[in-house]
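residues and backbone:
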Amino acid sequence: MCLEQQALSQILETAIVAARLAGQHAMEEMNYVKATLKNPTELVTDADRHCQQLIVDRIKESFPDHGFIAEEGEPGRIFKRAPRGEPAIWWVIDPIDGTNNFAHAIPIFTVSIGVLYEGRPIAGVVFDPATESMYTAVKGGEAQLNGRRIETGQDDIAAVNSIGLDSHFGDPLPSWVARIIRQSRFRNFGTTALQLAYVAAGGLIGTVVCTPKLWDIAAGVMIAEAAGAIATDWRGRPLFPVDLDNYEGHAFDVLVANRKVHPRLVEWIGA
């Protein structure tokens, strides 16, 4: 089934409204947040759950038969509801990407909403509420920041250019991580979705992420690819399609970069 542009536009508009609602709520709650450990490396807050419910409720108003995959479900589980009917569209949601920052009152976090059909992204929104920055893309369209077109650019690896790096690469630290640190101004913003959005806008020439879940990357990869970036796993293989019916929260390894930098990083990682 081919989705018409009008349907895609309605989906994107709904995602934008839902992301803004959740982002504004998160900003209001940030100074009053209480965090608990979800696992040894991740925190969760009540605001994560409240924001997720705001997003899901808003989407249901327009698309009651669509499906959901979201980060915050029952303890130890993701939230998942399969689509009912056709087209089988899934909304993949991270209500607060950057919870560790958020829980420590660091206003660097995003709301990430990706929309997938047949296992591939068809729309994506990454909203940075602290700066009112709304990154968007829809299948067949351009990547935008607050309604203006963005592109990755063609800057190469250099001491004046920045590459995003994840945390928790393991011990010992891979030699290619040290190589990136030595040859670039490496960055870690604490939110995968924002780093992917910055690749789309050209602020980062690339980003390497070691353990993201689908909700961390679905929207950001859509936006980055629409802006001209290449998005793969560390070996240069496609990330999508994903078997959404059977997805239960497994992690990916992700490399997204502009077209000049991507092959070099694949080579470094594989060396």
Notes: Residues 163-270 form a domain with the D-Maltodextrin-Binding Protein; domain 2 fold (CATH 3.40.190.80). The two ends are 42 Å apart (CA to CA). Residues 125 and 136 are 5 Å apart (CA to CA).
